[in-house]
Write a structure and sequence with these properties.
Blueprint: H1 34-106, H2 109-120, H3 156-168
Amino acid sequence: MAKSYSRYEYETSPRKLEPDYNVPKRNPPKKKNTAKRNVSKKKQKELKRKKIRTTLYVLIAFAIVFLVSYRNAKIDENFAVVQSLKENLESVEKENAQLEVSIESSLNLKNIEQQAKSLLGMQKLTSKQTEYIELPKTDYIEPAAENVVIEEEKGFFEKVGDFVFGLFK
């Protein structure tokens, strides 16, 4: 018996008509061919191996990319450390140069005299305090009467060799 379609269709495609009965599907008879099964199993194993290989290659590629990016990150960190150390070095060198200039300016003769008078209570020498000494112009250095021979210390094998040669003399 056919179905009645009295409702309005809103879609643009018409409905498919279904038969009132179900047609049984026939399954083709199974052939028992062991050669095809073995071939298909071999193909399946090969496919599994190929999938495993490709997965392994992808993992290796990912690991290489990860290692390269990690190495670059470490290089960037070390570069930042080097740059900060260079900045510190520059500031210390500037401070050192300023200290050298201040030390040189404070080491003139007038400043030294003034500090010696004020801090240490020193005074300039008068002519009464100056004493002159005359030294004879003879040479006080005497030449060595003996020749000094310095022997180098011999190694173990040289000592053993000398001992053996001494026995045969």
